[in-house]
Each structure stands twice: as C-alpha cells, then as structure tokens.
Design brief:
Four copies of one chain form a homotetramer. By secondary structure, chain A is an alpha/beta fold. Chain A folds into two domains: 183 residues, Rossmann fold, CATH 3.40.50; 116 residues, Phosphofructokinase domain (Rossmann fold, 3-Layer(aba) Sandwich), CATH 3.40.50.460. Helices cover 42% and strands 18% of the residues of chain A. Chain A has eleven helices and eleven strands. In chain A, α5 packs across α6. The radius of gyration of chain A is 22 Å and the shape is elongated. Chain A starts with 6 loop residues before the first strand and ends with a helix. At the A-C interface, α1, α5, α6, α9 and α11 of A face α1, α5, α6, α9 and α11 of C. Chains A, B, C, D: InterPro entries: ATP_PFK (IPR022953), ATP_PFK_prok-type (IPR012003), PFKA_ATP_prok (IPR012828), Phosphofructokinase_CS (IPR015912), Phosphofructokinase_dom (IPR000023), PKF_sf (IPR035966).
C-alpha cells in the first residue's frame, strides 16, 4: 500500500457528544502508529478557516479517553457554508502541507466535508459523533450509548420520587427528529408511554393508555417525550392537557436538557470511538475518501458520505412493540 | 428506664428525599431491638386518618437502605390540617393501641405533628427529611448530601458540553427559600456565579462578573440559580437579559428538576438516617416527646419541634466568600 | 397461531448477571400480554425440583427493571444433574400443569434444559444471562455491557491513583475462559497491555512492552488480566515477576471480584433483556422449543440450544489490533 | 494585616485522595485573589528537593476540581527524611524566593513539614488529605467522604449477587490502623458485621452473630473488614475459619483495593477542599505557621501540626451501637 497521506488534520464539529475525545485520541495514536503527522483543529471548521491547529502526538491525548466533551472544542461555522470560507480553509491546509481531514460530527458536519471535497478534491473521512443516533451507515453513533445511560439514570431517580407520590411525570429527552433516545431509554426506564416524532400516538390514545395503566394498579407513571414529538406543541402543553382530561394524577414535567450531552463515555462508546479512529485513518491511508466509518453488524464498515447525509434512520418497530408489551 | 412505649407508628410526609427509606429501616429495626411493635403508615397523614398502616418487623425493611423515595409513600394531607382530620387519625391510633409516632418529613410535617400533640397529648418525634436543608436543629437534613452529589454530577456533565462550545449555562437547582443546595453545589461544580434567595446580587453585578470572568480567559461559564432566587422572575428571563446585555456568549438554560429528589442515598445520608432512627425511637422510649432529632456538631441531639419549625437556617457566609475567591 | 402454551415457568440459574431481573419482568409481562399464566421458580433447578414456585402477574415485577441480581434467586443444582432430580422437577411441573419453561442462565444451565427436554419432551427456551459473553448465538449476553461499565469505572478510579504515583497496576477482571471483558474494558480503560486466555503474550514480551511504554513517556501503566489468562499462575505471581524484572515501577495488584456481577443494569442490558423476554415467550407460543434467543446483527434470532452449548465464542481480532495501536 | 508572604509553594505528599486537586485549585486561586505568586511542586518533597516546581495561575487549575488523584503527583521521599535532603529543599525554595509552603497530605507528610519548619523556620501549613480520616484536628479528611461513597457503591453491587446466591461475603476496605471507613460504609451498606482494628470482636462471637443473623431469616450476609483488623491474620484466613465453622453459607472474599483512592470527589470533598485551601493560604497570610487546617463543628479551624501528628482519632462509639441495632 503506497503511503498516500503524510499529514492529517482532525476536527470536531456540531453538537458535542461523549466519545469524541476518545475518537480524537484514536485518530492521533493511529497516526503516531503509522508515522503520520497529526494536527488537531480547534473549534471545528471555524478553526480550519483561521488556521487554528497544532500538532498532536501520542502523549497529547493522554488522559482524555474518559472525558466528555471535546478537547478540540466544537462550533457551528457560518463562514464554512460560503465558498470563500471553504477557500480560506483549503489555503490554510495547503499552507501547512496537510493532505487529509477527519471530521468527527453529525450530518451537517459531513455535508460540509463532502462539499469541501467536491470543490477541492481534498481527502475527507467522517466519524459519526452525535447522541441522537440519526446517521445512516452505523448502528450506533458516538455518544448514543452514553446518553442512553445518562437518561435512564435520571429516569430511575425521577421514578423514586414519582412512585413515592403517585405522580405522573412527562420527561423530555433529546433527539430532534428521531426517537431513538426516547424509545430505548423509555423501555429501559420502564416508561408507561413513549412519544416519538416517528409516530403520532394522539392525545386521546395517550389519555386512554394512562387510564388503563392506572386501572391495572399502577400508582405512578412515566411518559418519555422526544423533543421533536408531534403530538403537542411542547411538553408543558401536554401536561396541561392531561391535567384537564385526567383525574387522580399529580402531573409534573422534567426536561433533562444538556446534561445528556456530557459525562464520561460508556465502555461501549470508548471502544467504538477507538475502533472508528483506527478505521478512519487507515481508510485514508488506503486511498479512500468521502466515506464515513460506521458500525454495521458489529463490524467497521465504510459508507459514502453522500448516503450518510441523505439517508434517514428508522425506528426499530420491534422496540415499539416491546414497549407496548412491557407497559402491560 | 420504664418502658413508656409499646407500639410505635412511623410515617413519611411532604416531599420525599433520599435517606427516608434508610430512616424507616432504622426506626423499624430499633423497635425490633427494643421489642416495640412497629407500624408503617402509608401516604403520610392521609394514611393515618384512614387507618392505612400495617405491622413491620426487621425483615420488612430488607433491601431498602439503598433505595431512594419512600416505601411508605408520602403525601400532603389537607384533611390533617382540620381538627376533624386529626381527630380521625387519633381515633385510628387509639383503636390500634399505638402509643407513639415518628414523623419523617419537613417543617410542614412537623407543624402537623406538633398540633397533633398539643391537641391529643400524643407522643411525637420528628426526623428531618428534605433535600433543602432548611430545618433548624440539624446541620444536615436527610437527602441534602445525596441531592448535592446528584446536582454536582449534572453540573459536571453540563460543563463538558459548555466548555466544548464556549457557552454560558444557567442551571436551576432546588431549594425554595434557601440557597444551601445552590451554594454548595455551585462551589463544588466550579460555578462562576451562584444566585441564591438570601442575597440579591443584582443583574448589573452579574453581567459585570461574567464579563470579568470572560476577560480573565474563561471561555465558558456556569451560573447556578436557586429556585427561589430573587433577581429575575425566572431563569428564562435571566437568560433573555444576558442575551441582550452581553456579547459573545451562547446562553443556555437547564432546569435540573425532580431527579434531584431521587437516587440511592449517599453513604452520609444512610449513616445519618440510621443514627436518627435509633435516636428517635430511643428518645420516645425515654419519655421524650415533641422533639426533632438532628445532627449538631457531629452528635445526635434533640431540638424542640417548636424551635425547628419557627427557626430559619442561615446561609454559611464563609461559603459565599469561598465561592467568590474560587471564581477568581 | 394455535395457542400452544397456557402455563409458563421462568427461572434463573448459574451465576447471576445484571439484566436478569429485567428479563424476568419481560417474560412475566409478555405472558400477561398473551394471557399465559406465569410462574416464577426460586433458586433455579433446585426450586424446580422442590416445586418452589409461585404465580407472577404484571404487578409482581414492578420496580425490578433497574435492580441487579435476580429476585428469583439462583443456584447451581447437583440434583438436577441426576435423572432422579430431573424426574422430580418434571413431576412438579406436571402437577402444576405448567407446560413450558424459560431458563435464564449460561451454558451450564442450557445443558440442563436441553437434557430435560430430551428426556421429557418438555418445551424449553433459553435466555443467555452471564457477564462473560461466552455464549454462541448472541453478540451480547445479558449483563456483559453492564459489567464492562463497572470494570471501566473501576479502572478510571485506579488510573487516578496510578498516575499520581507513577505506578504499574495489574487489574484482574472476570471471564474464566474468555477475554471479552478484559479486551473491551482494557481498550476503554486505556490499558497499556491486556492479557487474555485466548492469546499467550509471554512474559518477556510483556516486560518489553512495558519498557517501551515507559520510554515513550508514560509514567504509569495499567495491565488488564483476565481471570483465565494463561501467562502466569495468577496475578500476584505476575506482579512478582515484574517486580524482579523491571525497574522504576511500583507494582500493585487489584482484583475487582464480585462487584462486577452486580449493580443496576445499563440501558443496553435492560432493552436487550426486554427484547429477549418477549422473543422467548412468543417463540414458545409459536411452538418453538430447544432454542436460545439472542442478538444477531441487531435482531432477535433463535439458535438451537445444542449449538449454543457446543460453540465457543471467539475474540474479535480487530479489537486486539486496536488495543495495540492505542497503546502506542 | 501586613502582607507577610509573597511567594507560596504547594505540594501533595503521601497517598493520594480525591479532593487533592480541588485543594490545589483552591490554594492557587486564593493566591491569585490575594496577588500572591503560587508555585506547584511536583512529586511531593522529592520535587521540592529537586527544585521541580513551576508557577501556577488561576487558569492553571481549570477543570481539575472534579478529577481524582493529584495533578502535582505525589511520592514518598526517603531523602527528605535526611537533614541533607531537607537542606537541599530549603536551598531550592530560597533560590526561588518562595516564602511559604502548603503541604496537602497525611500525618507522615505533616511530620516532614514540622521538622522542616523547626530546622529552617520556614512557614508551613497543612491540609489533611487521606481517605482514612485518621488525623486529629478535623472531623473529615479530604477524600474520606468520596471513598465512603465508592465503598458503599461496591457493597451495593456485591449485595446484589450475594442475595441472589445466599452467600456470605467478606469485603476488605482500606483504613490501616483505623476503622472509620469500615464502620461508616458498613452501616451504610447494611453489613451484618463490621470488623475494625479498634475492637476485637473475636472469631467465636463472629460465628455466633452470623448464626443469629441466619436464624432471623437472612439468607445472605456481608461482613466488612478493615485492612488493619485484629481478628485474623488476613481476610482469606477469616474465610477459611468460617468455611470450617459454619454450615450453609457459600463464603466469598472481595478486596476492594486501590479503586477506593480514586474517582471524582463528592460534593462534600470539593467544598471542604475549597474551604481548606482558602483557610490555609489566608492563615499563612496572617502570619500563622505550623498549623493544619481542619473542619471542627462545621467551621474551619487551625490545629497545631504537633497535635495533629501525635493525636489518634477515635472511633465513634455511637456508630458501633447503631451498627449492632441495625443488624437486628
């Protein structure tokens, strides 16, 4: 295999997720292993445009595998959406003789990478990092598993107080257009209902279901609501509706918010990040470009960035059914 | 010592807090140790009025020391605020030949207990259980330490994402009229500012402080806000004000909510609960009544319920100063 | 589909693992959903022989999804290994008109189930519960993911003190004949070396590797050792060898032990358990028998118990390579 | 108050404990607040002797409040026990114009500090950092509270598996000469017996107690053993004794080991560390020397180093009694 790359840059872009640091560490160490010079770019595409990057060696990434967030910091860059911005970024890379780029982020970040490649022919490779698990080409995005555990831990805590007071809790979790977090965490948290963007349960059926749940002897209930759920305008309106249309429940709302994005990554996310970093660098080394690395049937596979961007992950219908049966 | 009591009832009342189960366990086992019959009352004073209690022995409380919430459930009872309600409760106790009552709860619950004693001469003993730490006569209420660790863990997670994006986060924590949670968790979470009900920092000083913080090189900031803080009407208005009056920060809000009330109690809360349960039962056995057990200078002490109710805990001014110095 | 089963029994057998309770809950609720009577058998095959089982309905399994261990308790039964023991068990089942059995456990438990079926034609279905992940027919056994997170959390803590003192730690993790826990947790914990039963690194290469690691600037090191590792007789002998053959390291040993088997299951294990319980009951309902349910390429699949027992899971060679590259 | 100090050095010495980083952060930021130059010394007294220290400002300690271990690293120095070693250290300090020293560590470290002061008149101040809580002059040493939570979490996990299998577990916890960890964690973990160095229960009484426990209906038991317990030579011999002298229990041993020293500090330890750092620096600023800062009745107080070293903390007898009653 001809050594096609000599200097590689890595950046994190978009919303951060647990495991990004582990992925940075893996990219850097894989470069060290293959004697490729590695540069860390700060604040995503913003830093690329400003030439804000510095060399990283195996020791630069010491002690970060268990840290949430990203030591390279992340940002959303308006300028990189312009041709001028991307030109500046290209110039900075050329100036530093960097010949390949690993982008850790979500679909927005990959769109940028793909356009950048199309315009300048610059070799790019994507690593899917987002807690939402909404990217085609990988069964798990980096941070998804960790976020699930964070959410489930919070549900467990809320369950303690819910069942002490016979309360109904609406708990909002992240996941803008997809219900993966809500569905998995809802099952694991023993939620009575799970409201997701992919399925409009309808308010009447929700009330009906909660009433059935109550009759069956449950004295408290948890309803998990994905951010992007289609039923109500927002979770507080949901509460109001239930307050008006159901008796005997003291209804409360909890919006879990940004703590879902942080915390030490789970074992799964650290291993996944380590594997993805190796695969990303070695794929570039083999002359591949415009791909995203991903986990498919337990193996590291490449998916064209184009597919990763255009596709839409689907909810596992089996899980919906399991959820229904579990709330018997 | 003459054995003054033979049948004791225990209930949890008001908002639940981690450690209540450990306290129930301790009351029950101390009764078993002294051959006192023990009854668990369900749903606080509500259950007392309805005669909803059942005998508990040492094995009834197996495996609950590490569970949040309260197996006896809690409730706020309107009826117990009436003379008629309390009469019913008294009748039920007399009927069951119960001769003493341990109430685990906050100041509202203690007020009920005190009136109940004044009207019927029924021996009562209080155990302070609330995460707010707002009860005079104990340096720590049950659940306070656990809630602090829960809050700090959440702040750590939010810090991960805040520092990855150069964001300013307002984090609302519990503590209606007192800033104990905010102040301690704020220091432990490395917050740049802490807004508490006891002190009106003022919006101008907040902006000034955040600007100073930024100039000193900080790229992200965390501001902890107690529920009952006096500055703004609520935390979202605070955000709006900062959005308008400060540049360069992407401001976000996180309301931690009810998960602060749940979770396995910390070692501290479990030991405290165990000590309080022993002290409560043995004090009743010694003929004491109308007291609350508490931790004062590391020792179990009794405080008249009257004092516990009327008093108001004060914020530790040393902590305020430490917080200021730490955000240098 | 003709309703082939009316009364189903479920038991847990062998070493317990986090997620067993979630699986019991799922079996019980799936039975309730399909109007099948469900019985919980205590202490595995022991309880079956003694007829120690009782009916469970949807409410019997309330609040157990997040509890480690098994509410049905587990045991290893010598008597069930005899024909007489199995005959007794069969008689008890017939007496209670139970017509199918779900066994949650490892390969030993499945062997018992298979023989039981062969002798009496009794319908059995297996759910793989063990932290070791050593069962063919599922990418993940119940409890594996949780155990990994427990181990990684312990490694993180030990790393804190190791790096404060420039120490070398040998950490022993569970996994008798297989290195799955060691390999995954080792990568996630940033271990410098991982010793597993499947691969004999050799003591010389270990010393060499640690020396290289030291030269590269690392001031502390973590070596993960699977219980069943082939190099030394045990981990304390490993320590002695390194003490004698390497300079400049203060070597310590930590044996993580049984805490690896407990704790609240991770989100992954709870969802997996819920899915497996549904699949197990519904497969029996469809007339299937002598299978184990498992996760294959993300889907619930059946594997003949015979294959599950005889097969041997293999270590993922890609992970070994990732581990090598990461310790660059 | 005349500003008596201008340049201050801080070091961590002896065994590390969670909260040391938070204390370093507090010392550094308090120096920044008072415009004192601050130097961090690496590897304790070793680094002092070698002049291995560098200036630290408020930003140097960013993001360490929640990290276990010590960023300054720790070591035990043989050379500092010699007059020559201490002379070298003094020369290095004089050379750098450093005029005061904060030592974070245990009694061994304080002995060194005291001798150093007596020989050279160099102002020193101690901050008690050890998980053992064995230092007179403070109700809590840094790291004690965190270690307790770590131990209790491990006991909870082991309890899961113990109660699933009707097992008796001996769990060894740290605390060489004192039983503070064992006693507190034992109560919080619901242990049936707690063996501590301060009290020789005797093997016969242990067997008797376990038998009583069994008769009362307990099907599993946890015995917490402090490292320095006087009963048996070690925990494995204890197991052998019980194996021989008790029937019906499957006895297991778990040695928790060094993970007790690591992990993110609890809220309590972070607040305590922050308070101690402020008190230490400001006490030196007020011209105090040869003291240790400590928590006494909830307040920051100074204790002469001499007393801190010579004294011996006593076990809280009330806790022993509580433990007895709880295992009813």
């Amino acid at each position: 295999m001809p050594k096609t790359i000599k200097k590689l840059a890595v950046l994190t872009s978009g919303g951060d997720s647990p495991g990004m640091n582990a992925a940075i560490r893996s990219v850097v160490r894989t470069c060290a292993y293959h004697n490729i010079e590695c540069f860390g770019v700060y604040r995503g595409y913003e830093g690329l445009i400003e030439g804000d990057f510095s060399p990283m060696d195996a020791r630069s990434v010491r002690g970060i595998i268990n840290k949430g967030g990203t030591i390279l910091k992340s940002a959303r860059s308006k300028e990189f959406r312009t041709k001028e911005g991307r030109q500046k970024a290209f110039d900075k890379l050329v100036e530093a003789e960097i010949d390949s780029l690993v982008v850790i982020g979500g679909d927005g970040s990959f769109t940028g990478a793909l356009i950048f490649n199309q315009e300048f022919g610059f070799p790019v490779m994507g690593i899917p990092g987002t807690i939402d698990n909404d990217i085609v080409g990988t069964s798990h995005t980096l941070g998804f598993d960790t976020a699930l555990n964070t959410v489930v831990d919070a549900i467990d805590k809320i369950r303690d107080t819910a069942s002490s007071h016979n309360r109904l809790f609406f708990i909002e979790v992240m996941g803008r257009d997809v219900g993966h977090i809500a569905l998995n965490a809802g099952i694991a948290g023993g939620a009575e209902e799970i409201l997701i963007p992919e399925e409009d349960l309808g308010l009447d059926r929700l009330v009906e279901s909660l009433n059935r749940s109550k009759k069956s002897g449950k004295t408290s209930s948890i309803v998990i609501v994905a951010e992007g759920d289609k039923i109500g305008k927002n979770i507080f309106q949901l509460k109001d509706y239930i307050d008006e249309n159901m008796e005997g429940y003291d209804v409360r709302v909890s919006v879990l918010g940004h703590m879902q994005r942080g915390g030490p990554p789970s074992c799964f996310d650290r291993v996944l990040a380590s594997r993805m970093g190796v695969k990303a660098v070695e794929s570039l080394l083999e002359g591949q470009t415009n791909y995203m690395v991903g986990l498919i049937n337990g193996k590291m596979e490449l998916t064209p960035l184009d597919n990763a961007i255009k596709g839409k992950t689907k909810i596992n219908l089996e899980l919906l059914r399991v959820s229904d049966i579990m709330s018997t």
